[in-house]
Design brief:
- By secondary structure, this protein is mainly α.
């Protein structure tokens, strides 16, 4: 007697059972195809096209096309034209008078303290020397993950 594989086994463990299922499923598929071909046998091409047309595929395609076009119109075109009419509210009704700039007195002597050049603070233009026999891109054996072990 052959025993059926239990459901506790994984599907990869039982290759014979998988092949049996595949064989029975393919027989069922072949039977369905043969029944469909028997149904179409002896019919004219116009009748076969009528069977396909009755399935509603074309009607569904047209309906989905109109729905997508309607969604594009609703969610893009209408907000585009409605959103451009907004005008910013004026800050105040009365204009503020423009005052003449106040001139600062010019000092007689230039200040002795000058601000440092920001580029020199950042080190722009500074040249650094490196040893000619070493490549800075090579690994020197420093393992930054050694503390995680």
């Amino acid at each position: 007697m052959k025993s059926k594989p239990t459901e506790t086994r994984s599907s990869l463990a039982s290759t014979k059972a998988d092949l049996r299922e595949l064989r029975s499923n393919s027989r069922a598929t072949v039977g369905e195809i043969q029944a469909f071909l028997r149904e179409l046998k002896g019919k004219s091409p116009q009748e076969m096209l009528g069977v396909v047309a009755e399935s509603g595929l074309f009607r569904s395609l047209v309906l989905s096309t109109f729905l997508v076009a309607g969604g594009i119109i609703i969610f893009t075109v209408i907000p585009y034209f409605m959103g451009g009419d907004e005008k910013p509210a004026p800050a105040s009704e009365t204009p503020t008078p423009i005052e003449a700039p106040v001139e600062a007195p010019i000092p007689a002597e230039p200040a002795t303290e000058t601000a440092p050049d920001p580029l020199s603070i950042l080190g722009v233009g500074e040249e650094l020397s490196a040893p000619p026999n070493t490549n800075p891109l090579e690994d020197e054996g420093d393992d930054f993950l050694k503390d995680l072990e």
